[in-house]
């Protein structure tokens, strides 16, 4: 048996974040729409955390970015409820729905929820840490 907490944690960890820095000063303290992540906010130093997919696109297609390093999440495998909630709040509705599906959360509980409600639902499930039945894997006959 595994808990929803365990399932949600591992789904969230798969969405690895990468810290990148803009080479142009003109984008410091600004917001940009980028592939995969949508709207991002660049800090005063020109750095921002984006998903691996987004970083790959920006670093290969554009010469305006450089990888700064790993985020704290990549260095630390422990996730507190507070860290998890902060990470989940940065996800899109589609990503949250994928997380719910992959974690095996009952669809009737989360379908149709707005982002704020969905975030609360996922965080509550993460914090409750209840045990759930493993789904039997389909056997394939040769």
SSE map:
Blueprint (H helix, E strand, L loop, with lengths): L1 E2 H11 L2 E6 L8 E4 L3 E4 L5 E5 H10 L3 E6 L1 H4 L5 H9 L3 H11 L3 H4 L4 H14 L2 E2 L10
Antiparallel strand pairs: 1-7, 2-5, 2-6, 3-4
Description:
The protein has helices at residues 4-14, 52-61, 72-75, 81-89, 93-103, 107-110, 115-128, and strands spanning 2-3, 17-22, 31-34, 38-41, 47-51, 65-70, 131-132. It has 142 residues and is an alpha+beta fold. It has 2 domains: 2-12 and 77-130, no CATH class; 17-70, no CATH class. The protein has a 3-stranded antiparallel β-sheet. Strands 1-7 form a two-stranded antiparallel ribbon. It has a two-stranded antiparallel sheet with strand order 3-4. Residues 72-77 and 134-140 have low confidence and may be disordered.
Strand proportion: 15-25%
Number of strands: 7
Helix content: 40-55%
Question: Secondary-structure element order, as H and E?
Answer: EHEEEEHEHHHHHE
- Let me know the largest β-sheet: 3 strands, antiparallel
Structural class, judged by helices and strands? alpha+beta
Radius of gyration: 18 Å
Distance between the termini: 28 Å
Quick structural overview:
By secondary structure, the protein is an alpha+beta fold. The protein has helices at 4-14, 52-61, 72-75, 81-89, 93-103, 107-110, 115-128; strands at 2-3, 17-22, 31-34, 38-41, 47-51, 65-70, 131-132. It has 2 domains: 2-12 and 77-130, no CATH class; 17-70, no CATH class.
Defining key terms:
single chain; 2 domains; alpha+beta; disordered C terminus
């Amino acid at each position: 048996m595994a808990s929803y907490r365990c399932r949600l944690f591992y789904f969230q960890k798969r969405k690895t974040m990468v810290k990148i820095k803009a080479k142009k000063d003109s984008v410091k303290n600004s917001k940009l729409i980028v592939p995969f992540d949508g709207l991002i906010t660049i800090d005063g130093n020109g750095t921002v955390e984006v998903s691996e997919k987004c970083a790959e696109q920006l670093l290969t297609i554009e010469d305006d970015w450089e990888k700064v390093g790993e985020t704290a999440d990549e260095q630390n495998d422990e996730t507190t409820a507070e860290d998890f909630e902060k990470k989940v709040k940065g996800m899109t509705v589609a990503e949250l729905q994928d997380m719910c599906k992959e974690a095996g959360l009952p669809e009737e509980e989360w379908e149709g929820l707005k982002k704020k409600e969905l975030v609360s639902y996922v965080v509550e499930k993460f914090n409750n840490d209840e045990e759930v039945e493993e789904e039997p894997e389909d056997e394939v006959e040769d």
